[in-house]
Amino acid sequence: QVQLVESGGGLVQPGGSLRLSCAASGSIFNINAMGWYRQAPGKERELVATITSGGSTNYADSMKGRFTISRDNAKNTVYLQMNSLKPEDTAVYYCNAAGITVEGGIKYLEVWGQGTLVTVSS
Questions:
Q1: Which of 41, 61, 93, 102 qualifies as a FRET site for 121, CA 20 to 30 Å off?
Q2: Are 4 and 23 a contacting pair, CB within 8 Å?
């Protein structure tokens, strides 16, 4: 069984920074892509950024230049560095892992973390 555990959320002032981490566990052989999504109150979940095992990244337009996604394949961990945070960045941030292969060749289409709350407020 594959689990994702996020950490690093919290309260930050506008203009501040936070770094989110998400570690995958569970006898993992490979994860094709990992990423972050977010859901603000009353809104649908939206893409923040994704990164492949080869390091290719994709960002939502509103996050480009402020957020940076990175990944440590050896640790099955993905990070999201968030700078110049705005009140509209307030949301629950969810980690996602897609195309997962574990020992024994078992494959998972995708797994979600439980979410971590980021609040940007003065």
A1: 61
A2: yes
